[in-house]
Design a protein that fits this description.
The protein is α/β, with parallel strands linked by helices. It is built from eleven helices and 14 strands. The longest helix has 16 residues. The model has no long low-confidence stretch (mean pLDDT 88). The chain binds adenosine-5'-triphosphate. The site of adenosine-5'-triphosphate has 11 residues, from strand 2 and helix 1.
């Protein structure tokens, strides 16, 4: 059972702070690393894999420093985001060369290909593989030395739904077998389907941590901004203002803008008011549902 620990870890690239004072602990099972593009997820994974040195703070695995620790490297596997796989190699050649780099024999490569269910296709060239198959072969390459820790950078990106489900199943299975797995993603739905635990990174900072239900609840409970168009915006506005769930109502050329502090109450109230006032609702749409605003709320910047 392996535990990764980051203590006040920072990483700069010149003047750019990619990871800023992050403290987190990643234990056995599957953890999702969630954050918008550029949040520092890849940098964090590379720090954990020993591919990058920290600029400040410490990154350890089971209490031992990761950076420049060859013994530790034997227990970590990284599946990078970029393809970096030669298309002219067969799956077998690719995974076997990963095995050789670790001083291992063919049986290790065979086991890894079996684990990701790529044995049947192993003699085809990688350029003939689907995105999902390429990703699974990369996972096999990272698993060839049977590491306790597996780090995956945006593993589900660009896959069709069937391939995604297949890889999600595999990641779940590996986690259930006691491995410590961390994978990055910018999509909450993706993370919550695979991970029990979620770490959220926003602009290099650790914004939230916990069970996905808790994070989901915090996302739902934040103030929401809705645009409402109806047959009588003025009447509706007056009734909405009278209710405690409204944080503010303004009449604009495009309709009403309603800010609500209590999402659930508002979504029940609006149809009831419309019915009682005999007002027809033409449009009810959230205006701040984009990921950036959700993330910035979680990180306390809004
Ligand atoms: N080698 C580098 N040199 C300079 N800046 C870098 C380098 N690598 C990353 N950065 C910067 O560090 C920040 C974090 O990048 P990182 O790739 O870790 O984020 P990310 O969350 O993985 O994003 P994405 O999902 O887009 O890959 C970004 O502002 C990025 O531009």
């Amino acid at each position: 059972m392996s535990v990764i620990e980051l203590k006040q870890v920072s990483r700069w690239y010149g003047n750019v702070v990619a990871v800023n004072d992050v403290t987190m602990t990643i234990g056995p099972g599957v953890t999702g690393l969630l954050g918008p593009n550029g949040a520092g997820k890849s940098t964090l994974l590379h720090l954990m894999a020993g591919f990058l040195a920290t600029s400040g703070g410490t990154a350890t695995l089971d209490g031992k420093q990761i950076w420049r620790n060859h013994e530790i490297y034997r227990t970590i596997g990284l599946v990078p985001e970029r393809e970096g796989v030669y298309g002219f190699l067969t799956g077998w050649q690719f995974v076997r060369s990963a095995a050789r780099l670790h001083g291992l024999q063919d049986d290790a490569a065979e086991r890894a290909l079996e684990l990701v269910e790529m044995t049947a296709a192993k003699d085809r060239r990688i350029e003939t593989y689907s995105k999902g198959m390429r990703q699974r072969v990369k996972v096999a390459g990272a698993l060839v030395h049977e590491p306790q820790v597996l780090l995956l950078d945006e593993p589900f990106n660009g896959m069709d739904p069937r391939q995604r489900l297949h890889l999600m199943d595999l990641v779940r299975k590996l986690g259930a077998a006691g491995r410590t797995i961390l994978f990055s993603s910018h999509i909450l739905e993706e993370v919550e389907r695979v991970a029990q635990q979620i770490e959220v990174l926003v602009a290099g900072r650790h914004a939230a941590s916990g069970d996905y239900r808790e994070i989901r609840r915090r996302m739902t409970d934040r103030p929401h901004l809705f645009r409402v168009r109806s047959s009588d915006d003025r009447r509706l506005a007056a009734a909405l203002i009278a209710d405690a769930s409204s944080g503010g109502v303004s009449l604009t050329a495009q309709g009403l803008e309603v800010r609500t502090e209590d999402f659930r109450r508002f979504t029940r109230l609006l149809p009831r008011l419309a019915r009682d006032l005999n007002v027809h609702l033409w449009q009810v749409s959230p205006t701040d549902e984009d990921l950036e605003s959700v993330f910035s709320y979680l990180s306390g910047r809004s």
